[in-house]
Specification:
The complex is a heterodimer of chains A (115) and B (112).
Chain A: E1 4-7, E2 10-13, E3 19-25, E4 32-38, E5 44-51, E6 57-58, E7 67-73, E8 76-81, E9 90-97, E10 105-106, E11 110-114
Parallel strand pairs in A: 2-11
Antiparallel strand pairs in A: 1-3, 3-8, 4-5, 4-9, 5-6, 7-8, 9-10, 9-11
Chain B: E1 3-5, E2 10-14, E3 19-21, E4 24-26, E5 32-38, E6 44-50, E7 56-58, E8 64-68, E9 73-78, E10 87-94, E11 100-102, E12 106-111
Parallel strand pairs in B: 2-12
Antiparallel strand pairs in B: 1-4, 3-9, 5-6, 5-10, 7-8, 8-9, 10-11, 10-12
The chains are: A mainly beta (115), B mainly beta (112).
Chain lengths: 115, 112
């Protein structure tokens, strides 16, 4: 149990385009989802926390207009990188947590390359 | 504010040898502690977690960790390392319904 999927697993796009990444909890209801960014050989940097049906809470320094997060259902959250630029290239990982649970379950990640 | 320190950036052990990865945390209350493993290009897999009770917790893949409040530590151990254990290991501290803070990770290399 507690499986989280992400789609796509990797994406290459041109600078200036927008990219949407999906995060799904497959066998549980995720009341909270987290989006992280990870640079090579570095730890996870929390970008935002989203609760189902609410606006996402962004960490300091993360541009909310750049990284649009939607958590419209208990099993799906999306991250849209708008007007992507090469510096947005990174590994994006989502995690999901059920109601009053302590443990986050992570997706496999999405590698974004912006040319 | 909560924080996690993993003092060892890189550890190399021989296959079959024992392993200990260090983790120190800073947290104002009783912490929820986690160890995750990440293979290259993959997400994070939960190895084990501590919330309360017995301070020695068992996890998957033969890993265990011991919570020592007096030392603010939650070190990960395995008695005999396998080549497949080579990966990045992250310690994390969090709270119920709150955010988790991750350490910078320790890269484990296993020599044949």
């Amino acid at each position: 149990g507690a499986v989280v999927s992400q789609h796509p697993s990797w994406v290459i796009c041109k600078s200036g385009t927008s990219v949407k990444i999906e995060c799904r909890s497959l066998d549980f209801q995720a009341t909270t989802m987290f989006w992280y960014r990870q640079f090579p050989k570095q730890s996870l940097m929390l970008m935002a926390t989203s609760n189902e049906g609410s606006k996402a809470t962004y960490e300091q320094g993360v541009e909310k207009d750049k990284f649009l997060i939607n958590h419209a259902s208990l099993t799906l959250s999306t991250l849209t990188v708008t007007s992507a630029h090469p510096e947005d290239s990174s590994f994006y990982i989502c995690s999901a947590r059920g109601h009053e649970q302590e443990t986050q379950y992570f997706g496999p990640g999405t590698r974004l390359l912006v040319l | 504010a909560q924080s996690v320190t993993q003092p060892d950036i890189h550890i190399t052990v021989s296959e079959g040898a024992s392993l200990e990865l260090r983790c120190n945390y800073s947290y104002g209350a009783t912490p929820y502690l986690f160890w995750y493993v990440q293979s290259p290009g993959q997400g994070l897999q939960l190895l084990l977690k501590y919330f309360s009770g017995d301070t020695l917790v068992q996890g998957i893949k033969g890993f265990e960790a011991e919570f020592k409040r007096s030392q603010s530590s939650f070190n990960l151990r395995k008695p005999s390392v396998h080549w497949s254990d080579a990966a990045e290991y992250f310690c994390a501290v969090g709270a119920l319904a709150g955010k988790s803070t991750f350490g910078d990770g320790t890269t484990l290399t296993v020599k044949p």
